[in-house]
Amino acid sequence: MLMTILMGILFFLLIMVSIALHELGHLIPAKLFGVKVTQYMVGFGKTLWSTTKGGTEYG
């Protein structure tokens, strides 16, 4: 039972890392080509944490 829960948590974390890396693949070229990027967010729903740097909100 504990192993199943731990594997579920690990799976969730790996999916979030995968999404973050995928979105970086959009963010980096956009910034390099001078496109205004207002948000870089990972996940869905209500924002739990965010910070703003250089006109882009990261969360």
Describe this structure in words.
- With 59 residues, this protein is an alpha+beta fold.
- The chain has 1 helix and 3 strands.
- The chain has one domain (2-58).
- Strand 2 and strand 3 form a beta hairpin.
- The mean pLDDT is 94.
Give me a quick take on this structure.
With 59 residues, the chain is α+β, with helices and mostly antiparallel strands. Helix content is 53%, strand content 14%. It contains 1 helix and 3 strands; from the N terminus they run αβββ.
User: How many domain units?
Assistant: 1
The helix tally amounts to 1
| Strand neighbour order, sheet with most strands | 1-3-2
**Number of distinct beta strands:** 3
Please state the CA-atom Rg, rounded to the nearest Å: 15 Å
**What are the secondary-structure elements, in order, as H or E?**
HEEE
User: Low-confidence parts, pLDDT < 50 over ≥5 residues?
Assistant: none
Helix % is 40-55%
Beginning-to-end CA distance, first to last residue: 32 Å
Beta percentage is 5-15%
Approximate shape: elongated
Mean of the pLDDT scores?
Answer: 94
Structural classification: alpha+beta
Taking the sheet with the most strands, its summary is:
3 strands, mixed
